[in-house]
Amino acid sequence: MSTIADVAARAGVSKATASRALSGRGYVSDDTRDRVETAARALSYVAHSSATSLATGRTQTIGVIVPSVGRWFFSELLTGAQETLLENGYDLALFGVPERSTARRQVLDDVLPRRRFDGVIVVGIEPDSPEMAQLLRLGRPVVSVGPHTARMNAVSIDDAAAARIATEHLIDLGHTEIAFIGGATEADALTLGDARRLKGFRSAMDAAGLDGRSSVAPAAGTMPSGYEAAVDLLGNRRTRPTGVVGVCDEVAIGTIIAARRLGIAVPTELSVVGIDDHQHAEMFSLTTIRQQPREQGRAAVRLLLRQLDDPDAPVEDVVAASALVVRSSSAAPR
Amino acid sequence: MSTIADVAARAGVSKATASRALSGRGYVSDDTRDRVETAARALSYVAHSSATSLATGRTQTIGVIVPSVGRWFFSELLTGAQETLLENGYDLALFGVPERSTARRQVLDDVLPRRRFDGVIVVGIEPDSPEMAQLLRLGRPVVSVGPHTARMNAVSIDDAAAARIATEHLIDLGHTEIAFIGGATEADALTLGDARRLKGFRSAMDAAGLDGRSSVAPAAGTMPSGYEAAVDLLGNRRTRPTGVVGVCDEVAIGTIIAARRLGIAVPTELSVVGIDDHQHAEMFSLTTIRQQPREQGRAAVRLLLRQLDDPDAPVEDVVAASALVVRSSSAAPR
Questions:
Q1: Is position A329 within any domain?
Q2: In chain A, positions 85-114, which contact chain B (CB-CB < 8 Å)?
Q3: Residue B24: its pLDDT value, please?
Q4: Of B82, B87, B93, which has the smallest distance from its Cβ to A96's Cβ?
């Protein structure tokens, strides 16, 4: 197996120059880079990342912690983060560990301190949790994706605004009986993001003088949970609202499926609005607030790489754009 | 920062023993392990994985290549693989790279040869592709998940049998006009797995003497694509089948949604059967053939770790179980 010394000798440069040319870090002229790359190819030279790592102090690997790999938001975010890391020569070490799981404790207590990741991206972690404090104590760049309280490097959307805009869309169409489906089935499980969406719904209803006519049906943020909550809510003809704001698109789609099962026409008898613009939103003609988790994953990586380039870079709090997308699940009430 | 030498001195053992005790590799007595762990905790010792890696020749990292992170099958598989790797002290380096993408070429040509992963798990790669040959040339353990042809370490289901059982279920109920939705919209994009499912469908129809009454509506393996193909297929009352086998659950669910839109009652006017037991199958009461991608991810890791423990272990070809799950999307034709 060829060494970096063999490559340097063949290219007629020093080992340090050959290493710079191949790693892409530090300046070498184009001509030198070409000579070194040609020599490396001729010798079938392959850099050993472990040795490179000891030499540079970098592992070129970023740890990413998500509560689930399968949910749409997280998988889109992972896709964006991984693409951007790959473009920049970094690997993504994946930790899909549910909240309050043993695996999650293991990752935080044991794996992260041992592995010398260059930085960590953490998704959907509660900002005032002991976990966040533990991550920051690692002394490496950390970027948070999701709602947060403290000033830190983070990417989020304005959750309250998203829910307020969704609710105002129904109010503008003339709806007065509007329900919010989502939040949490247990009070202690209410996430900061869902709490802010609920608050945004209530503030829109309050501002329109409709606070007495709003109702909240708790549901987890999944299609089956939204379906079940909607069957209960819509099943009672006397208390049935004419508009529903889902805490997320999966809940809103569960609501549309429940309405179809119950023979309630969308949008003539029921308008439904979601938040996300999930991959299935279009198929269900769902009016929604678009957030782009893939872009949020890209933005998180850019924030992290900036910290790696310049440890003194100022803290940046990116608020990702979201916009109302009107499809045919919402209309004026009959 | 404490070193392994500090830990060894405090515990009164050799550096090699301290290293064995902390890495979990190689024998040490329980008493010694306790002494070393106590010393490591007292000194806040954290192993450096790069240094460990140079010493052991292992990076404790497995590269996993999937064509997409977001699709249900792949995200379930990733979840199972990552859990099992974590349990065994390994990290998962994620490469979600679509077929025929530049990123995929970069991973195969550049990233994998440079990174010293202990092994690679690759999902849904065509067995006779140049990519598979390239992977095997890495000289490290490779496990393939998905249909394959050559004898290699692999996890798959019997795709032909899955589709045959789904089709036979409809034939047993009395259906004679049965369509298969799926395959591929372009001939050169037909995957080995889909080709085998199509073959399983045709062999069941042939065996029942119904080969003249089968039809195939091409679709990609997604819900929207299944929906579109079903709208075309079911829209024509004269050629409408009474039963549909979807190449996967996403296509079958798209078919059910299309039927609802067209006012065709499932199962009284149309029976639909899928393959997967997708997370949404139950919500759509979908009769399906259950395959368990999370278990397949676990099995792939176990196969890989076995190769790492014993490079001479015989090649093993795991065929994962699949079973008919009858729900209410299928019934006898009227």
A1: no
A2: 86-87, 91-97, 103, 106-107, 111, 113-114
A3: 57
A4: B82
pLDDT digits (tens, 9 = 90+) for B195-253: 999 999 999 999 999 988 889 999 999 999 999 999 999 998 888 999 999 999 999 99
Instruction: Specify the DSSP element, H or E, that contains A240.
Output: none
Mean pLDDT per 10-residue interval, chain A, length 334 residues: 76 80 68 81 62 69 94 94 96 94 93 93 89 91 92 94 97 98 81 94 97 91 94 92 97 96 95 95 94 96 95 92 95 95
Residue span of the structural domain in which A208 resides: 159-290
State how far the Cα of A66 lies from the Cα of B151, in Å rounded to an integer: 36
Q: Work out the burial of residue B3: count CB atoms within 10 Å of its CB; fewer than 13 is exposed, 13-18 middle, 19 or more buried.
A: middle
**A95 plus A203 within the same structural domain:** no
Q: The CATH number of the domain where B119 resides is what?
A: 3.40.50.2300
The pTM (predicted TM-score) of the whole model is 0.81
The set of residues, in sequence order, having a beta carbon less than 8 Å from that of A165 and lying 6+ positions away, is A289, A322, A324
ipTM over 0.95: no
B 214-233 residues with CB < 8 A to A: 223-224, 227
The whole-angstrom separation of Cα A162 and Cα A321 is 10
The radius of gyration computed from the CA coordinates of chain B, to the nearest angstrom, equals: 25
State which residue of chain B sits closest to A284, comparing Cα positions: B257
Has residue B331 been placed in a domain?
A: no
Residues A69, B92: C-beta atoms closer than 8 Å: no
Whether the Cβ atoms of residue A227 and residue B283 lie closer than 8 Å to each other: yes
Same-domain status, A303 and A227: no
User: What is residue A186's predicted lDDT score, i.e. its pLDDT?
Assistant: 76
Asked if A182 is an interface residue toward chain B (Cβ–Cβ < 8 A), one would say: no
- Residues of chain A positioned with their CB less than 8 A from the CB of B257: 283
Could you give the CA distance from residue A256 to residue A249 in angstroms, rounded to a whole number?
10
Determine whether the interchain pair B50/A47 forms a contact, defined as Cβ–Cβ distance below 8 Å.
no
Per-residue pLDDT at A1: 52
| B171 and B85 share one domain | no
Query: Can you tell me the distance from the alpha carbon of B122 to that of B142, in angstroms, rounded to the nearest whole number?
Result: 7
pLDDT 10s digits, A198-232: 999 999 999 999 988 889 999 999 999 999 999 99
Among A54, A69, A113, beta carbon nearest to B79: A69
Per the structure, the count of domains in chain B is 3
CB of A289 within 8 A of CB of A329? no
- Interface size A-B, in CB pairs within 8 Å, comes to 118
Q: Which residue ranges of chain B lie beneath pLDDT 70?
A: 1-2, 23-27, 44-56, 187
Task: Look up the CATH number of the domain holding residue B24.
Answer: 1.10.260
Quick check: is B264 in a domain? yes
B108/chain A closest Cα distance in angstroms: 12
B5 interfacial to chain A (CB closer than 8 Å): no
Q: Which of B86, B96, B116 sits opposite A82 (nearest CB)?
A: B96
Q: Compute CA A312 distance to the chain's CA centroid, rounded to the nearest angstrom.
A: 25
Q: Same domain, yes or no, for B151 and B165?
A: no
Question: A50 and B72 in contact by Cβ < 8 A?
Answer: no
Q: Are B50 and B69 members of one domain?
A: no
Nearest to B72 among A70, A79, A282 (CB): A70
Please give the pLDDT value at position A45: 67
